[in-house]
Amino acid sequence: MAETEAQGAGTVETKAEFAETPDTFVRNWLTAIRMAGKEEEKWRKDATDTLERYRYEKERGKDYNILFANTQTTVPALYNSEPVPDIRRRFMQRDPVGDAAAAILERAISIQTEMYDFDSCMQAAVKDRQLQGRGVARVRVYTGPNGSKRFTCEPVIWDDYRRGPAKRWEDVPWEAFRHKMTREDLVDLDPKIGAAVPLDVTLAHAEAEKGESSTVPDMFKRATVWEIWDKAPRKVYFIAESYVDGPVKVADDPYNLRNFLSTPRPMYAVRTSDSLTPICEFMEWKPLADEMDTLTRRISAIVAAAKWRGIYDGAMSDAVVAMSKLGDGELAPAMDAARVMQQKGIDQSIWVMPVESLVQLVKQLYEAREQCKTTIYEITGVADILRGSTQASETATAQQLKAQWGSLRLQEAQRDVQRFARDLYRLLADLMADQLSLPEFVAMTGVEIDKPQPPQMGHNGGPPMGAPQQPGQPPMQPAMPPPSIAPEVAKLLKSDLQREFLIEIETDSTIRGDQQRHAEAITGFIQGFGAYWQGVLPVIQVGAMPPEVAITVAAAFTRSAKLGREVQVTMDEWEKKAKEAAQQPKPPPPPDPKVEAEKAKAAAVAQKAQADQQATQLDAQAKQAEHQMAMQEQQQEFTLRMQELQAELIADRERQAMEMAQMRADFALKQQDHAIRREEQAQAHEMGRESHAQGLEAIEAKREAAKQNGART
Question: Which of 167, 225, 322, 544 has the fewest Cβ atoms within 10 angstroms?
Answer without folding.
Answer: 544
